[in-house]
Amino acid sequence: MPEKIIVSGTGCCLVDLLYNNVDFKSDAIRPYLSKKRGDGGLAPGQLVFQEEFEKYCGDSLEVFINKITGGKGYDKINIGGPSIVSLIHLSQLVANKYCDVRFYGRGGKDNYGNYLLSSLKKTPVVLKDYKLIDNRTPSTVVLSDPYFENGHGERMFINSIGAAWDYKPQELDEDFFASDIVAFGGTALVPQIHDNLTSLLKKAKSKKCITVVNTVFDFRNEKLNPSEKWPLGESDESYRYIDLLITDMEEALRLSGKHDLNSAINFFMKKNVSSFIITNGTKNISAYSDGRFFKSYGLKEMPVCQQIIEELKQKQGAGDTTGCGDNFVGGVLASVVDQLYKGDSKPDLEEACCWGIVSGGFTCFYIGGTYFENKPGEKRAKILPYYEYYRKQISC
pLDDT tens digits, residue range 329-351? Predict the structure, then answer.
């Protein structure tokens, strides 16, 4: 049993500005919807860059927001981003006495940066190398329609990369690669890390790290080559250095360049990803392990948590789906850490997915991806009953 497990992560960390109850089918938003891939318009579940969106619609982001909200401000400001949100959730589920969760990244010297820094200090994550520099703090306007797709909910994202443009691979020090687990989250929104991901993963494996990659919609490459598959690092060699890849359905199709789930799954298998999980909203997830990191698992599907679905129907509109995927990742990582700490040299993928599924589902009960605890262990205590419900559900 290791004395302490070190998890170090880098990637997308930003301010989320959340606008809830935006009707994606309204006349107000219709002129801003995308007409073809990568054109800069809005699309449910997808992300565009602020600069490209403003070119597409001919308005500033501020004017657009005023038009669709009637001048109302955001409903909530929160910590966002596929890297930091997953790491925060991981740190809330595991006891810091046996796991240190560390983050590396950059923010800007502005009000949003100050908000991020002060808010991050309220979480159990260790800010190992997080600095505010002379650039804008990365941010995302999140438009949420909780009634979209028969009440399952969906979001649209307008992102400003800001200071994340300036974060370079060489700023990841040797302590980062001395970790037990290194996690690269949403690196498509940290371009210099993303473009060097093959080298970073290769170095991590040479240092005997467990490598985890969770993805985000890659608008930069979608715009550059809307008909080509998205790159992940310098080459497809990245995949063979990944112990666990977590992606959603849309991202899996675009990363593989395929048009259906089975073809995307075959692509990842042929590229020698050790294990992967593909989420698909409220539909079944697909999970696979070749036995190198997790126990051999083959290819299986797992459903969402029905208890959470039933409760959400009763509380429709109370929360939103922002951060569901990020918390899913954090739940999976927490289970991996727990299993490794207990001495399981090869964790169980199904067990990890169970914690991911209930973690992602629980996120729908509140607005924004990051949950701030009043005391340590609070969030785990709230999620544990859903884990027990879910275990019974899949054992039937």
Answer: 999 999 999 999 999 989 999 99
CA distance 320 to 332: 21
Residue 200 confidence (pLDDT): 98
Backbone angles phi, psi at 290, to 5 degrees: -90, 0
Structure tokens belonging to residue 185: 């989250």
The pTM of the full predicted model, rounded to 2 decimals, is 0.94
How far is the C-alpha of 385 from the C-alpha of 396, rounded, in Å? 17
Q: What is the mean pLDDT of residues 102-126?
A: 96
Q: What angle in degrees, to the nearest 10, is found between the helix axes of 249-256 and 261-270?
A: 60
Closest C-alpha among 286, 292, 293 to residue 266: 286
List, edge to edge, every strand of the sheet that includes 139-145.
47-49, 154-160, 139-145, 14-19, 76-80
Summarised one tens digit per residue, pLDDT across range 263-304 is 999 999 999 999 999 999 889 999 999 999 999 988 999 999
**pLDDT at 318 exceeding the cut of 60:** no
For residues 352 and 336, what is the distance between their CA atoms, to the nearest angstrom? 6
